[in-house]
Amino acid sequence: MTIELKAASKVTRGITHIKPTSLVLETGHFNVLLGQTGSGKTSLIKLMAGLDQLASGQIFMDGVDVSKLSTQKRNISLVHQFFVNYPQMSVFDNIASPLRVAGMAKSEISDRVAEAAKILQLEPMLKRRPQELSGGQQQRCALARAIAKESRAVFLDEPLANLDYKLREELREQLPELFAGRGAVVVYATSEPEEALLLGGKTALMDDGVVTQFGPTAEIYRNPANLTAAAVFSDPPINVVEVMSEKGSIWGGGNLTWDADARSASEGQYQFAIRPHYVTPNRQSDADVPVTGRIAVTELSGSETSAHFEVEGRSWVSLAHGVHPYKVGEDHTFYMNPANGLYFRKDAA
Amino acid sequence: MKTENQKAWLFVLPVLLLVAFNALIPIMTVVNYSVQETFGDNLFFWEGLGWFEQILRSDRFHSALGRQFLFTFLILIIEVPLGIIIALSMPKKGIWVPVCLVTMALPMLIPWNVVGAMWNIFTLPDIGLLGYFINNTLGIEYNMTRSPIAAWITIVTMDVWHWTSLVVLLSYAGLVSIPDAYYQAAKIDGASPWKVFRYIQLPKMKTVLTIAILLRFMDSFNIYTEPFVLTGGGPGNSTTLLSIDLVKIALGQFDLGPAAAMSLIYFAITLLVSWLFYTLMTKDDAK
After folding, report:
1. What superfamily in CATH does domain A239-345 come from?
2. For B116, which of A114, A297, B155, B208 is 20 to 30 Å away at the CA?
3. CATH superfamily of this structure's domain A2-232
């Protein structure tokens, strides 16, 4: 099973929501759409689901053009951020509803519902109504409906966003197993980089209605194609400074300087970006370079301390394990290994 | 140490007074009349439950009650489905929303006796726009001062015109609160428009519809002003609804005892039906 977009775009009332996008999504792993709110994740899902019309381009499922096909005929499932279940039906009927509409035999319906309910631990609640369930159970009911349907594609649009932390982690761990070996293309939209990393598979980075980069999740995390991609895949925000490469050394303003490496050997202007957890309060190795800035804000979250400070007019963040006694308003020297950073040519970015 | 005094009563007093003047005293006055025979010069004679027995056994009360239930039944089975249909066909967004909402709200803003007078003139066979049109242009005999059927059609139409908007506005409020996600789920499942209505829209409108039906039941069951101005209960007694009959007994014949007894019975019926309906409709949610 594959979904292929060929220059698919979406425009409503003159506003472009999705710029022409080409993408091949396959079964066997999670396809994560990662982007901030408003980057077009939901719009792209609605296009693939057939809930919205294409402005241009085509969508293929298993090589067949489905661009003009109605949502129902595409045989897909969609799980929302909100818990969408039919309020008047029992959990059993909710899971069974798409199968009934499809005209499936009664015995097969109850088999499939029983299987889905077992996987999602909904067996004791089959007779209850959705509103009598907790949020997590309601969302499991929606997931069970998607599983029982055995559709060709399952779209999960931030399905865990409205669940509390504990439940979110629990369900996120289960998700890959749930869909493993079912043959459906699983598309998972999220705004949290961490979720994309945990779910693995492939990730499509989305920004402003366009897929900026697509590939194996870990690969994209290590080598983002541009600064925007790097920024999307970083939480807290990635640290950026403009640097100049000249005669084998890098200069970033003030006394911020280090040796150029293979990636920045050719002379010119670069944007240097480094993730907050690579900027630490103590020297870790000989290759470390000191970065000094005035501390603006510090936050202690459990076992990690983050400090916001200013480097060459840009706000930087350091994220380090342990409790560090930063003093707001004072200069502090942090250390980073430029090898952990990313270079983007100024003209290319 | 705990101080014990009676100061708490001071805090309860305002509400006690309010409830007393608002509800208790008027009702007890009616109860007072209902168990006595009243003459001029403030002469009262104990009557017990005699008036209640008389009212409950009287054919006049039975037929007025029958007409009252028929009227309420008719307007409910017209206004509720019609209101839902109009609400469903109203735009969900865009510049037409406020236009539709204001247009819908207009009939409700007109004072009740004006509504009665308007429809009275509107349906006059010789000069009324509608009356003239039906009688002279269509050639159909239509005169509500002569024909009971015409009178009934007129009061029902008038109430539908006046109050369907309430059902529309409440249903519409229920409809627009349904997230798009539900419609998408239905689309993905391939549910028919009827199933969307039956399993998404209707359940989501249930609360507001319960309120709408309850309000329409109470209002129409107690309706007085509009039919009084329109038909005055005629021709004959054909549109004499309970409230009109009640006023006839109380003020026309000045039979305060029977009128008071009838008021209490009337009140009890309204309360009982409303309570039954509300309990049945909210039974599921309470579980």
Report:
1. Nucleic acid-binding proteins (2.40.50.140)
2. B208
3. P-loop containing nucleotide triphosphate hydrolases (3.40.50.300)
Q: How far apart are CA B36 and CA B50, in angstroms?
A: 9
Burial of A99 (0-12, 13-18, 19+ CB in 10 A): buried
Asked if B204's CB is within 8 angstroms of A132's CB, the reply is: no
Crossing angle between the packed helical segments A135-149 and A106-119, to the nearest 10 degrees: 130
B190 touches chain A (CB under 8 A): yes
pTM of full prediction above 0.95: no
Report the DSSP beta bridge partners of residue A245.
Answer: A250, A268
CATH 3.40.50.300 range(s) for chain A read 2-232
Six token digits for residue A44: 């792209």
Query: Which residue from A136, A146, A137, A1 is spatially nearest to A63, judged by alpha carbons?
Result: A1
Q: In whole angstroms, what is the distance from residue A279 CA to residue B72 CA?
A: 76
Q: Which residue of A has its CA nearest to B192?
A: A101
Residue by residue, pLDDT tens for chain B (287 residues) are: 677 888 888 889 999 899 989 888 998 888 888 888 877 777 778 877 878 888 888 888 888 899 999 999 999 999 999 999 999 999 888 889 999 999 999 999 999 889 988 998 898 888 888 888 888 888 788 888 888 888 899 899 999 999 999 999 999 999 998 888 888 888 888 888 898 898 889 988 888 999 999 999 999 998 888 888 888 877 888 888 888 888 888 888 878 888 888 899 999 999 999 999 999 888 766 44
Write down all domains in chain B, each with its CATH number in brackets.
59-286 (1.10.3720.10)
Q: Is B191 part of the contact surface with chain A (CB cutoff 8 Å)?
A: yes
Taking alpha carbons only, the member of B200, B202, B140, B147 closest to residue B171 is B202
